[in-house]
Amino acid sequence: MSSHNLTKAVLRAEGLPRRRVKNRLMEALAWLAAAVAVGLLVLVVWSVARRGWSELNLDLLTKTPTSGFLATGRQGLANAFVGTLVIVGVATLMALPTGILVAIYLNEFAPPPVRSALSVALDVLNGVPAIVIGIFVYGLFVLGHGQSALAGSFALAVIMLPLVARSTMEVLALVPSSLREASLALGVPRWRTTLSVVLPQTVGGIVTGTTLAVARAAGETAPLLFTSSIVGTQLHWNPHHALQSVPVAIFELSESPDPQDHARAWAAAFVLLLFILLASLGARWLATRSRRRIATSR
Amino acid sequence: MTEEANVSITIEPTVRVETSRQPIPPKERLERIFHIDGLDALYGGKPALKGVTMDVYKNLVTAIIGPSGCGKSTYIRCLNRMNDLIPGFTQTGTIRYHGQDICAADVDPVAVRRHIGMVFQRPNPFPKPIYDNVAWGLKVLGMKDDLNERVERALTQAALWDEVKDRLKASALSLSGGQQQRLCIARAIAVKPDVVLMDEPASALDPIATQAIEQLMNELKSEYTFVIVTHNMQQAARVADMTAFFSISRGDEGHRFGELVEYDATEKIFTAPSDRKTEDYVTGRFG
């Protein structure tokens, strides 16, 4: 192209109008796809909120359901919220240290073949359907011992582990190797370098990964149906017993003939949705913050 | 910063050798700190460096010069086992440090690096306050007595104290590139190593920061032994007592590897080299 003639005639000869139309069309399609994705989210949140509106009040969080058809007064799902808190909390205590240690081993110490093999294994674990994990834990703990919140926590921890480990590995890989070398060249042992120089750089990323894993675990139903679903209506904190949880409560209320129960299920779903939304937003905020911190230290 | 450094900027292709340097003591009075014998370094089985044999002497500045890809950095990183961290790296031959083989099975690489510190090509301060950058190594290595004095002394030796004494709590990342590199030098010398390896310490710095670093090497060599890799011949001519010239050779199957061509007093290398390749390189005909 030696010509520097920019007149319209030349551009038309090169097929510019047709390219311009194509460009517009593709841009519009991309916009549409993005709008559909956002629209779906808005639709879900809105419809859940609308249907649960009548039961969306403080009693939902503070009162327990009264059993029997003579029940009067407002009812809540406090036992389910407490149960979810306990089950997911214990699951986090199990998955977080394990996931971080797995990630540190794979990223800092493992020889490359081990690293790639175990990374694939983590991805496979991440892809195992929740119900399969539920059956697995059912066979492992529940058969013979009965249901318990601990069994439920273990099942959720299995779901959380690959999420925590993978996200920790990602931030560990972002820590420049020059920082590790700086510490090692002083004659500092590797474990100390990892603990004092590398890990502090990754706190934001680890928190992000954990938050996302918690959000995911809080909404899991299938594993809990197997491990922690035969429950009463009282409020319990003891993880050795089966505890009610929000997703299981929603599932059970949805099968009730009472329309008020349906509304309560929608309200609980809305609270769960809100929690996951806020957790994800918080995680994103932490992620950008920590990425900025690592970037400035390069 | 003192302005008495007699560094001259040369425009002509030949390297002007500074004459104010102290003459090297006779060989019998030099103490051998490294004895490297038949060192081969390989990445994934492919040789990057072949058959390096040389001695490094105590309280001298030894420069390693040569074209890109001649294995200078690989070589200097062998001296404190920094290459251990690179997957697929292997080496053969021996490196004796005060007579002890640093690659022997019972030698701990952490102990090696404790005695042989390193300053890297790009400044890599910890993302911590300036004070903590120097103090952290001291604390971890148990040199906690007189911490403040040790930090001040290291920063003074690295010619940085006056610039940072009023903002020791500021982040090290707020310093300029040259200041960061001097901070890295302070961090390295604070823990009192025996040898300081410098892998192109001034390649990312402006001339003034470069001059500051060269000057401090000159002042500190009575206490430490320096080995410096540089692609800047003027720099080698200015700071080094001994200079080793590395070059690239081609093997039988056409792969390239680095080798030591000539190692001698700096004056000799730059004024009367005995190898043709060295002469071509230092006169700017090649490389």
Key attributes of the depicted protein:
heterodimer, A: 298 residues, mainly alpha, 13 helices, flat, B: 287 residues, 10-stranded mixed β-sheet
Q: Number of helical runs of chain B? A: 10
Count up the helices of chain A.
13
CATH architecture classification name of chain B: 3-Layer(aba) Sandwich
Instruction: Characterize the largest beta sheet of chain A: strand count, sense, and whether it forms a barrel.
Output: none
Shape of chain A: flat
What is the molecular shape of chain B? globular
Provide an overview of this structure.
The complex is a heterodimer of chains A (298) and B (287). Chain A has helices at residues 8-13, 16-52, 58-62, 78-109, 112-127, 130-145, 149-174, 177-184, 190-198, 203-218, 222-227, 246-253, 259-296. Chain A is an all-alpha fold and 298 residues long. Chain A folds into 2 domains: 8-55; 60-296, MetI-like fold (Orthogonal Bundle), CATH 1.10.3720.10. In chain A, helix 7 (149-174) runs antiparallel to helix 10 (203-218). The mean pLDDT of chain A is 88. By secondary structure, chain B is α/β, with parallel strands linked by helices. Chain B is 31% helix and 25% strand. Chain B contains 10 helices and 10 strands. The A-B interface holds A 111-112, 176-190, 192, 196-197, 201, 293, 296-297 and B 80, 82, 85, 87, 110-115, 117-118, 120, 122, 124-127, 136-137, 140-141, 173, 184, 187-188, 191, 193.
